[in-house]
Amino acid sequence: MNRRARLALLLLLAWPLAAPALSTDRRQPIHLEADTADIDDRSGLSVYRGNVTLDQGSLHITADELRVHLKDGEIDRIYASGRPATFRQRPDGKDQDVEGEALRMEYHATQDRLILLEQAQVRQGGDSFASERIVYDITTDQVQAGAGGSDRVRIIIQPRREKP
Q1: Which domain holds residue 68?
Q2: Number of domains, the chain
Q3: Is the bond preceding residue 29 a cis peptide, omega within 30 degrees?
Q4: What pLDDT digit, counting tens, does each position of 63-106 carry?
Q5: Residue 161 covered by a domain
Q6: DSSP state of 8
Q7: d(CA 28, CA 162)
Q8: What is the DSSP track for 43-59?
């Protein structure tokens, strides 16, 4: 099987994990808690440390540290780190949350892209995949995993139950 066919198969198999979040999440307020907060309006950087939790609609993030970069008053990038940092979100039309964890996570708002780095894992139901690097393009519902070298992608796909 050539490389392009393998990639297409991987994306097809990963599709259930890449469902978009609830469409109402972005319209919900953000609730953020941390032990400390350093907010610099001039630079547009806010740093939250210690037992950080962020909730917006069905989205729930935990981290040891969360850095929020604003551009023109809007979120541009978010960096989360932890042992591990985690996220959970309910996709539209699904009855199970997508859950993930990594030592580092990056969200790039302008590209609508979530990147999980170092010991990255994503799960939904019994399906999962793990790699040192997982990139999820929220707009196109595409997932890429693997960073090259000796890194291997590990995927578990449960058989789908037949509907009666």
Answers
A1: 3-156
A2: 1
A3: no
A4: 999 999 999 888 899 999 999 999 988 877 777 888 899 999 99
A5: no
A6: H
A7: 36
A8: TTEEEEEEEEEEEETTE
